[in-house]
Amino acid sequence: RLRSETVETPGGTYDTVVLRRQRDGSSRATLMWLAADLDWLPVRIRQTKGDKTITEMSLETVAGLPAGP
Fold first, then answer.
1. What is the distance between the alpha carbons of residues 61 and 15, in angstroms, rounded to a whole number?
2. Which of 19, 22, 32, 59 lies in disulfide reach of 11, CB 3.0 to 4.6 Å?
3. Is residue 1 very low, low, confident or very high in pLDDT (cuts 50, 70, 90)?
4. How many helices (H) and strands (E) does the chain have?
């Protein structure tokens, strides 16, 4: 767990908890922004290698869960 952060996505603005996952010895890391108000659904995921972003995904729509705070 890195920090708490408010994130704006095309699907809305959410208060999130930011998690980082990285294997020992690897330069690749995955950061996930999880929204408590959406039952911990990831609203942003970013994969990096070193200082370079490889992939980033952001929430656009939600069906079946509350649409935000």
1. 16
2. 59
3. confident
4. 0, 5
